[in-house]
Amino acid sequence: MHADTAYAHPCPCCGKPRRIAHLIDLYERNYQLLERLIPELELPFERVVSKSASDLPLHLIVVERSPYTSELRLTYEFEDPSGKHLEPDLWIRVYRDARVAEALHCGARAPWTATDEGDPVAHKFLDDQWARNHTLAKWLEYLLEHGHGFSIAGRPRLSGFSAAR
Question: Which of 34, 75, 90, 130 lies at a C-alpha separation of 20 to 30 Å from 148?
Fold first, then answer.
């Protein structure tokens, strides 16, 4: 794959060839939407459900915490005779210090193995990032439009949790 054909798909925001800066802008937009959905992005709880009059219950599950980042899952839970299914099951890494949020694939970020501008693995990773993060942005907008939110009231807080960690 040549560098000139690597980004044949235009950027949805401006129609120009995709650039990494546009992907970073999308991460920033996702953070802003998440901040509206989850006012306390320090996530002082393990698992919580948002209920909406016009949508399914939304489950938020905290996967990992560190001083500057958190990993969480947003999903709907479906039950059928074969068991519980989570769909869509978006894993999200929130970088609170940088104020960006990135949709991850299957709970883990794909390895970055690019060695030069024409590396097909790098281009596949970036194409996948575009798709995942656009999906996240659209879904977050949908959730907010349907009244979902994880406000402070009614959330089971962790004992001894301090946002200053």
Answer: 130
